[in-house]
Amino acid sequence: MLNLVLVGGGHSHSIVLKLWSKKKVSGVKVTLISNVKNTPYSGMLPEYISGFYSYEDSHINLVKLAEVAGIELIIDEVINIDADKKIVSCQSGLKISFDVLSLDIGSRPEKSQIKGANLYGIPIKPIPLFLEKWHKIIDLADNKPHDKMILTIIGGGAGGVELALNIHHKLTKILSAENLTINLIHRGKRIISNHSLSMSKKLTKILEQNQVNIYLNEEVKSIDSQKITLFSGKNIDSDYNFLVTQACAPNWLKNSSIETDTQGFIMVKNTLQSVNYPYIFASGDIANIRDYPCPKAGVFAVKQGMPLYQNLCNFLTKKSLTLYYPQKNYLNIIGTGNKNAVASWGNICVQSPLIWYWKQYLDNNFMKQFPH
Ligand SMILES: Cc1cc2nc3c(=O)[nH]c(=O)nc-3n(C[C@H](O)[C@H](O)[C@H](O)COP(=O)(O)OP(=O)(O)OC[C@H]3O[C@@H](n4cnc5c(N)ncnc54)[C@H](O)[C@@H]3O)c2cc1C
User: Fold this and answer.
1) What's the rounded mean pLDDT across residues 193-205?
2) Whose CA is nearest to atom 27 of ligand 1?
3) What is the pLDDT of residue 338?
Protein backbone atom coordinates (compact mmCIF):
# COMPACT_ATOMS: atom_id res chain seq x y z
CA MET A 1 0.00 0.00 0.00
CA LEU A 2 1.41 3.45 -0.97
CA ASN A 3 0.82 6.46 1.30
CA LEU A 4 -0.24 9.71 -0.34
CA VAL A 5 -0.28 12.49 2.25
CA LEU A 6 -1.95 15.82 1.47
CA VAL A 7 -1.09 18.75 3.75
CA GLY A 8 -3.58 21.64 3.90
CA GLY A 9 -7.13 21.55 2.62
CA GLY A 10 -6.79 24.55 0.33
CA HIS A 11 -8.45 25.10 -3.03
CA SER A 12 -6.29 22.67 -5.06
CA HIS A 13 -6.59 19.82 -2.56
CA SER A 14 -10.35 20.29 -2.31
CA ILE A 15 -10.53 19.74 -6.08
CA VAL A 16 -8.13 16.77 -5.82
CA LEU A 17 -10.40 15.15 -3.21
CA LYS A 18 -13.53 15.78 -5.27
CA LEU A 19 -11.85 14.08 -8.26
CA TRP A 20 -10.50 11.28 -6.03
CA SER A 21 -14.04 10.57 -4.83
CA LYS A 22 -14.93 9.86 -8.50
CA LYS A 23 -11.81 7.96 -9.52
CA LYS A 24 -9.28 6.46 -7.10
CA VAL A 25 -5.96 4.75 -7.68
CA SER A 26 -6.11 1.31 -6.12
CA GLY A 27 -3.48 0.33 -3.54
CA VAL A 28 -3.12 3.93 -2.31
CA LYS A 29 -4.06 5.22 1.13
CA VAL A 30 -4.78 8.96 1.16
CA THR A 31 -4.46 11.08 4.31
CA LEU A 32 -5.31 14.77 4.51
CA ILE A 33 -3.72 16.73 7.36
CA SER A 34 -5.52 20.01 7.88
CA ASN A 35 -5.45 22.49 10.73
CA VAL A 36 -9.13 23.34 10.11
CA LYS A 37 -12.33 21.35 9.55
CA ASN A 38 -13.75 23.99 7.22
CA THR A 39 -11.58 25.79 4.71
CA PRO A 40 -12.64 29.21 3.36
CA TYR A 41 -13.36 29.67 -0.34
CA SER A 42 -11.49 32.86 -1.28
CA GLY A 43 -14.12 33.97 -3.80
CA MET A 44 -16.80 34.21 -1.11
CA LEU A 45 -14.75 35.26 1.90
CA PRO A 46 -15.09 39.05 1.41
CA GLU A 47 -18.85 38.72 1.23
CA TYR A 48 -18.91 36.52 4.30
CA ILE A 49 -17.16 39.47 6.01
CA SER A 50 -19.78 41.90 4.70
CA GLY A 51 -22.51 39.60 6.03
CA PHE A 52 -23.92 38.46 2.68
CA TYR A 53 -22.85 34.79 2.83
CA SER A 54 -23.14 32.47 5.83
CA TYR A 55 -20.18 30.53 7.23
CA GLU A 56 -21.50 27.32 5.60
CA ASP A 57 -22.00 29.08 2.24
CA SER A 58 -18.41 30.30 2.12
CA HIS A 59 -16.48 27.35 3.59
CA ILE A 60 -15.72 23.90 2.19
CA ASN A 61 -16.54 21.21 4.76
CA LEU A 62 -13.40 19.06 4.75
CA VAL A 63 -14.87 16.47 7.14
CA LYS A 64 -17.68 15.66 4.69
CA LEU A 65 -15.38 15.93 1.67
CA ALA A 66 -12.95 13.43 3.24
CA GLU A 67 -15.84 11.10 4.04
CA VAL A 68 -17.17 11.21 0.47
CA ALA A 69 -13.65 10.74 -0.96
CA GLY A 70 -13.04 7.79 1.38
CA ILE A 71 -9.81 9.18 2.78
CA GLU A 72 -8.49 9.74 6.30
CA LEU A 73 -8.66 13.28 7.70
CA ILE A 74 -6.33 14.30 10.52
CA ILE A 75 -6.99 17.67 12.15
CA ASP A 76 -3.53 18.84 13.11
CA GLU A 77 -0.93 21.38 12.03
CA VAL A 78 2.17 20.30 10.14
CA ILE A 79 5.28 21.92 11.62
CA ASN A 80 8.09 20.10 9.86
CA ILE A 81 8.88 17.87 6.90
CA ASP A 82 11.83 15.51 6.67
CA ALA A 83 11.91 15.26 2.89
CA ASP A 84 14.67 12.63 2.80
CA LYS A 85 13.20 10.31 5.43
CA LYS A 86 9.70 11.04 4.04
CA ILE A 87 8.17 11.99 7.39
CA VAL A 88 5.75 14.79 8.23
CA SER A 89 5.69 16.06 11.85
CA CYS A 90 2.59 17.61 13.38
CA GLN A 91 1.98 20.05 16.24
CA SER A 92 0.47 17.26 18.39
CA GLY A 93 3.66 15.20 18.15
CA LEU A 94 2.19 12.86 15.53
CA LYS A 95 4.60 11.73 12.82
CA ILE A 96 3.26 10.45 9.51
CA SER A 97 5.32 8.78 6.83
CA PHE A 98 4.58 9.20 3.15
CA ASP A 99 5.57 7.86 -0.23
CA VAL A 100 4.14 10.86 -2.04
CA LEU A 101 3.46 14.24 -0.43
CA SER A 102 1.45 17.22 -1.67
CA LEU A 103 1.34 20.66 -0.04
CA ASP A 104 -1.48 23.18 -0.47
CA ILE A 105 -1.08 25.29 2.67
CA GLY A 106 -1.58 28.81 1.27
CA SER A 107 0.33 31.87 2.40
CA ARG A 108 0.11 34.51 5.11
CA PRO A 109 0.78 38.24 5.23
CA GLU A 110 4.33 39.38 5.92
CA LYS A 111 4.54 41.17 9.28
CA SER A 112 8.13 40.75 10.42
CA GLN A 113 9.10 44.26 9.21
CA ILE A 114 6.43 46.05 11.29
CA LYS A 115 7.23 46.68 14.95
CA GLY A 116 4.27 45.81 17.18
CA ALA A 117 2.48 43.83 14.45
CA ASN A 118 2.39 40.68 16.59
CA LEU A 119 0.57 42.47 19.41
CA TYR A 120 -1.56 45.02 17.58
CA GLY A 121 -1.90 43.68 14.04
CA ILE A 122 -4.70 41.40 12.80
CA PRO A 123 -3.31 39.30 9.92
CA ILE A 124 -5.93 38.30 7.33
CA LYS A 125 -4.48 34.77 7.48
CA PRO A 126 -4.80 32.29 9.10
CA ILE A 127 -8.45 33.06 8.27
CA PRO A 128 -9.99 31.40 11.38
CA LEU A 129 -7.96 33.69 13.70
CA PHE A 130 -8.85 36.72 11.59
CA LEU A 131 -12.57 35.80 11.69
CA GLU A 132 -12.48 35.36 15.47
CA LYS A 133 -11.19 38.95 15.85
CA TRP A 134 -13.58 40.29 13.20
CA HIS A 135 -16.59 38.82 15.03
CA LYS A 136 -15.42 40.47 18.28
CA ILE A 137 -15.19 43.84 16.48
CA ILE A 138 -18.74 43.43 15.16
CA ASP A 139 -20.00 42.51 18.64
CA LEU A 140 -18.32 45.61 20.06
CA ALA A 141 -19.88 47.81 17.37
CA ASP A 142 -23.28 46.18 18.02
CA ASN A 143 -22.99 46.79 21.78
CA LYS A 144 -21.66 50.35 21.51
CA PRO A 145 -23.05 51.77 18.24
CA HIS A 146 -22.49 55.36 19.41
CA ASP A 147 -18.75 54.94 20.03
CA LYS A 148 -16.19 55.91 17.43
CA MET A 149 -14.22 53.16 15.69
CA ILE A 150 -11.12 53.52 13.51
CA LEU A 151 -9.98 50.59 11.38
CA THR A 152 -6.91 50.50 9.18
CA ILE A 153 -6.11 48.09 6.38
CA ILE A 154 -2.38 47.79 5.74
CA GLY A 155 -1.79 46.68 2.14
CA GLY A 156 -3.62 48.00 -0.91
CA GLY A 157 -3.50 44.93 -3.14
CA ALA A 158 -6.72 43.30 -4.39
CA GLY A 159 -7.28 41.54 -1.02
CA GLY A 160 -6.78 44.75 0.99
CA VAL A 161 -9.09 46.80 -1.23
CA GLU A 162 -11.81 44.15 -1.20
CA LEU A 163 -11.49 43.84 2.58
CA ALA A 164 -11.77 47.64 3.06
CA LEU A 165 -14.94 47.83 0.97
CA ASN A 166 -16.60 44.83 2.61
CA ILE A 167 -15.69 45.96 6.14
CA HIS A 168 -17.13 49.35 5.27
CA HIS A 169 -20.33 47.76 3.98
CA LYS A 170 -20.81 45.71 7.15
CA LEU A 171 -19.95 48.42 9.68
CA THR A 172 -22.00 51.21 8.07
CA LYS A 173 -25.05 49.06 8.85
CA ILE A 174 -24.17 49.34 12.56
CA LEU A 175 -22.29 52.63 13.03
CA SER A 176 -23.13 56.09 11.76
CA ALA A 177 -20.78 57.56 9.14
CA GLU A 178 -19.33 60.10 11.61
CA ASN A 179 -18.40 57.31 14.05
CA LEU A 180 -16.64 55.12 11.49
CA THR A 181 -13.21 55.81 10.00
CA ILE A 182 -11.52 53.39 7.62
CA ASN A 183 -7.93 53.91 6.44
CA LEU A 184 -6.06 52.06 3.71
CA ILE A 185 -2.27 52.29 3.67
CA HIS A 186 -0.36 51.19 0.60
CA ARG A 187 3.33 51.43 -0.17
CA GLY A 188 2.84 51.69 -3.95
CA LYS A 189 1.96 54.87 -5.78
CA ARG A 190 -1.44 53.43 -6.74
CA ILE A 191 -3.65 50.74 -5.20
CA ILE A 192 -3.67 47.22 -6.74
CA SER A 193 -0.49 48.18 -8.58
CA ASN A 194 -0.21 44.75 -10.25
CA HIS A 195 -3.51 45.30 -12.11
CA SER A 196 -4.40 47.74 -14.88
CA LEU A 197 -4.40 51.49 -14.30
CA SER A 198 -8.12 51.64 -15.17
CA MET A 199 -8.93 49.05 -12.46
CA SER A 200 -6.85 50.99 -9.96
CA LYS A 201 -8.57 54.30 -10.85
CA LYS A 202 -12.05 52.79 -10.68
CA LEU A 203 -11.46 51.24 -7.26
CA THR A 204 -9.79 54.40 -5.92
CA LYS A 205 -12.94 56.32 -6.85
CA ILE A 206 -15.18 53.73 -5.14
CA LEU A 207 -13.05 53.80 -1.97
CA GLU A 208 -13.21 57.60 -1.94
CA GLN A 209 -16.99 57.54 -2.43
CA ASN A 210 -17.12 55.29 0.65
CA GLN A 211 -15.01 57.78 2.62
CA VAL A 212 -12.06 55.36 2.94
CA ASN A 213 -8.90 57.44 3.57
CA ILE A 214 -6.17 56.24 1.19
CA TYR A 215 -2.51 56.72 2.08
CA LEU A 216 -0.23 56.01 -0.90
CA ASN A 217 3.58 55.75 -1.03
CA GLU A 218 3.52 55.09 2.70
CA GLU A 219 5.03 52.22 4.65
CA VAL A 220 4.13 51.25 8.19
CA LYS A 221 7.01 51.42 10.66
CA SER A 222 5.21 50.42 13.85
CA ILE A 223 1.81 49.79 15.37
CA ASP A 224 0.81 50.38 18.96
CA SER A 225 -2.48 50.16 20.82
CA GLN A 226 -3.99 53.39 19.44
CA LYS A 227 -1.85 54.52 16.53
CA ILE A 228 0.19 53.58 13.49
CA THR A 229 3.51 55.25 12.74
CA LEU A 230 4.66 55.51 9.14
CA PHE A 231 8.25 55.71 7.92
CA SER A 232 7.42 59.20 6.59
CA GLY A 233 6.96 60.28 10.22
CA LYS A 234 3.15 60.56 10.02
CA ASN A 235 1.01 59.09 12.80
CA ILE A 236 -2.46 57.71 12.13
CA ASP A 237 -4.96 57.04 14.94
CA SER A 238 -6.24 53.47 14.69
CA ASP A 239 -8.06 50.97 16.93
CA TYR A 240 -7.84 47.87 14.70
CA ASN A 241 -5.11 47.16 12.16
CA PHE A 242 -5.64 44.52 9.48
CA LEU A 243 -2.53 43.16 7.82
CA VAL A 244 -3.06 42.34 4.15
CA THR A 245 0.57 42.86 3.25
CA GLN A 246 2.65 40.89 0.76
CA ALA A 247 2.16 37.10 0.93
CA CYS A 248 4.88 35.06 2.62
CA ALA A 249 5.47 31.39 3.44
CA PRO A 250 5.50 29.80 6.93
CA ASN A 251 8.88 29.85 8.69
CA TRP A 252 8.96 26.11 9.42
CA LEU A 253 9.39 25.35 5.71
CA LYS A 254 12.85 26.94 5.87
CA ASN A 255 13.96 24.08 8.17
CA SER A 256 13.22 21.46 5.51
CA SER A 257 15.53 20.70 2.62
CA ILE A 258 12.78 21.35 0.07
CA GLU A 259 14.06 24.07 -2.26
CA THR A 260 12.30 27.41 -1.88
CA ASP A 261 12.57 30.85 -3.48
CA THR A 262 13.91 33.87 -1.58
CA GLN A 263 10.48 34.45 0.01
CA GLY A 264 10.23 30.84 1.21
CA PHE A 265 7.75 29.53 -1.40
CA ILE A 266 8.34 26.00 -2.69
CA MET A 267 10.01 25.95 -6.11
CA VAL A 268 8.14 23.53 -8.38
CA LYS A 269 8.43 22.46 -11.99
CA ASN A 270 5.38 22.88 -14.18
CA THR A 271 4.42 19.33 -13.28
CA LEU A 272 3.85 20.87 -9.77
CA GLN A 273 6.69 18.66 -8.45
CA SER A 274 9.31 20.13 -6.15
CA VAL A 275 12.46 20.91 -8.14
CA ASN A 276 14.59 18.77 -5.81
CA TYR A 277 12.15 16.08 -4.57
CA PRO A 278 10.08 14.48 -7.38
CA TYR A 279 7.80 12.75 -4.86
CA ILE A 280 6.81 16.09 -3.26
CA PHE A 281 4.20 18.24 -5.00
CA ALA A 282 2.99 21.75 -4.15
CA SER A 283 0.26 24.00 -5.51
CA GLY A 284 -1.64 27.22 -4.84
CA ASP A 285 -0.05 30.16 -3.02
CA ILE A 286 2.71 28.07 -1.44
CA ALA A 287 4.14 27.04 -4.83
CA ASN A 288 6.30 29.11 -7.14
CA ILE A 289 6.35 27.52 -10.58
CA ARG A 290 9.84 27.82 -12.07
CA ASP A 291 9.76 29.92 -15.28
CA TYR A 292 5.97 30.36 -14.94
CA PRO A 293 5.35 32.45 -11.80
CA CYS A 294 1.71 33.33 -11.25
CA PRO A 295 -0.16 35.65 -8.89
CA LYS A 296 -1.08 34.45 -5.40
CA ALA A 297 -4.79 34.17 -6.17
CA GLY A 298 -7.42 31.54 -5.45
CA VAL A 299 -8.17 31.39 -9.18
CA PHE A 300 -4.77 29.76 -9.77
CA ALA A 301 -5.02 27.43 -6.78
CA VAL A 302 -8.36 26.22 -8.21
CA LYS A 303 -6.98 25.82 -11.76
CA GLN A 304 -4.07 23.74 -10.43
CA GLY A 305 -6.45 21.26 -8.79
CA MET A 306 -7.05 19.16 -11.93
CA PRO A 307 -3.39 18.93 -13.12
CA LEU A 308 -2.32 18.20 -9.55
CA TYR A 309 -4.82 15.33 -9.30
CA GLN A 310 -3.73 13.95 -12.69
CA ASN A 311 -0.05 14.15 -11.81
CA LEU A 312 -0.48 12.60 -8.37
CA CYS A 313 -2.34 9.68 -9.99
CA ASN A 314 0.21 9.42 -12.81
CA PHE A 315 3.15 9.52 -10.42
CA LEU A 316 1.59 6.82 -8.20
CA THR A 317 1.01 4.62 -11.25
CA LYS A 318 4.42 5.41 -12.80
CA LYS A 319 2.94 7.16 -15.85
CA SER A 320 4.39 10.29 -17.44
CA LEU A 321 3.25 13.58 -15.97
CA THR A 322 1.28 16.34 -17.68
CA LEU A 323 2.51 19.92 -17.84
CA TYR A 324 0.64 22.85 -16.36
CA TYR A 325 1.00 26.33 -17.84
CA PRO A 326 -0.71 29.12 -15.90
CA GLN A 327 -2.84 31.41 -18.01
CA LYS A 328 -1.28 34.84 -18.68
CA ASN A 329 -4.50 36.84 -18.28
CA TYR A 330 -7.23 36.02 -15.85
CA LEU A 331 -10.58 37.48 -14.96
CA ASN A 332 -10.32 39.35 -11.71
CA ILE A 333 -13.57 40.32 -10.01
CA ILE A 334 -13.59 42.51 -6.92
CA GLY A 335 -16.85 42.75 -5.01
CA THR A 336 -17.42 46.26 -3.69
CA GLY A 337 -19.67 45.14 -0.84
CA ASN A 338 -22.97 46.53 -2.08
CA LYS A 339 -24.08 43.87 -4.59
CA ASN A 340 -21.83 45.56 -7.12
CA ALA A 341 -18.49 44.45 -8.54
CA VAL A 342 -15.60 45.54 -10.72
CA ALA A 343 -14.19 43.08 -13.24
CA SER A 344 -10.92 43.34 -15.11
CA TRP A 345 -9.33 41.35 -17.89
CA GLY A 346 -5.99 42.75 -19.07
CA ASN A 347 -6.60 46.47 -19.57
CA ILE A 348 -10.38 46.18 -19.78
CA CYS A 349 -12.22 47.12 -16.62
CA VAL A 350 -16.00 47.25 -16.06
CA GLN A 351 -18.18 47.95 -13.03
CA SER A 352 -21.77 46.72 -12.87
CA PRO A 353 -24.24 45.01 -10.50
CA LEU A 354 -24.64 42.43 -13.29
CA ILE A 355 -21.02 41.37 -12.73
CA TRP A 356 -21.80 40.88 -9.06
CA TYR A 357 -24.76 38.61 -9.91
CA TRP A 358 -22.60 36.69 -12.38
CA LYS A 359 -19.84 36.29 -9.76
CA GLN A 360 -22.44 35.06 -7.27
CA TYR A 361 -23.59 32.49 -9.84
CA LEU A 362 -19.99 31.32 -10.52
CA ASP A 363 -19.11 31.15 -6.81
CA ASN A 364 -22.26 29.24 -5.89
CA ASN A 365 -21.62 26.79 -8.73
CA PHE A 366 -18.07 26.28 -7.51
CA MET A 367 -19.29 25.47 -4.01
CA LYS A 368 -22.04 23.13 -5.26
CA GLN A 369 -19.42 20.57 -6.29
CA PHE A 370 -18.53 19.94 -2.62
CA PRO A 371 -20.69 18.08 -0.08
CA HIS A 372 -22.49 20.23 2.54
C1 LIG B 1 -9.31 39.46 1.72
C2 LIG B 1 -8.85 38.55 0.61
C3 LIG B 1 -9.68 38.36 -0.48
C4 LIG B 1 -9.30 37.53 -1.51
N5 LIG B 1 -10.15 37.40 -2.57
C6 LIG B 1 -9.77 36.64 -3.60
C7 LIG B 1 -10.64 36.49 -4.72
O8 LIG B 1 -11.74 37.07 -4.76
N9 LIG B 1 -10.22 35.71 -5.75
C10 LIG B 1 -9.01 35.08 -5.73
O11 LIG B 1 -8.68 34.38 -6.71
N12 LIG B 1 -8.17 35.19 -4.68
C13 LIG B 1 -8.52 35.95 -3.62
N14 LIG B 1 -7.66 36.06 -2.57
C15 LIG B 1 -6.40 35.30 -2.55
C16 LIG B 1 -6.72 33.88 -2.06
O17 LIG B 1 -7.25 33.93 -0.75
C18 LIG B 1 -5.52 32.95 -2.06
O19 LIG B 1 -4.77 33.11 -3.22
C20 LIG B 1 -6.01 31.50 -1.97
O21 LIG B 1 -6.68 31.29 -0.75
C22 LIG B 1 -4.87 30.50 -2.10
O23 LIG B 1 -5.40 29.21 -2.05
P24 LIG B 1 -4.53 28.01 -1.50
O25 LIG B 1 -5.27 26.78 -1.82
O26 LIG B 1 -3.14 28.15 -1.97
O27 LIG B 1 -4.46 28.25 0.07
P28 LIG B 1 -5.58 28.47 1.16
O29 LIG B 1 -6.89 28.77 0.57
O30 LIG B 1 -5.02 29.48 2.12
O31 LIG B 1 -5.68 27.06 1.88
C32 LIG B 1 -4.64 26.55 2.68
C33 LIG B 1 -5.22 25.60 3.70
O34 LIG B 1 -4.17 24.95 4.38
C35 LIG B 1 -4.37 25.01 5.79
N36 LIG B 1 -3.03 25.00 6.40
C37 LIG B 1 -2.13 26.00 6.37
N38 LIG B 1 -1.01 25.65 7.00
C39 LIG B 1 -1.19 24.38 7.43
C40 LIG B 1 -0.38 23.45 8.15
N41 LIG B 1 0.86 23.78 8.53
N42 LIG B 1 -0.87 22.23 8.44
C43 LIG B 1 -2.13 21.89 8.06
N44 LIG B 1 -2.95 22.73 7.38
C45 LIG B 1 -2.48 23.96 7.05
C46 LIG B 1 -5.15 26.32 5.99
O47 LIG B 1 -5.88 26.33 7.19
C48 LIG B 1 -6.07 26.30 4.77
O49 LIG B 1 -7.24 25.53 5.02
C50 LIG B 1 -8.04 36.87 -1.49
C51 LIG B 1 -7.19 37.04 -0.39
C52 LIG B 1 -7.58 37.89 0.63
C53 LIG B 1 -6.64 38.09 1.78
Assistant:
1) 93
2) 106
3) 85
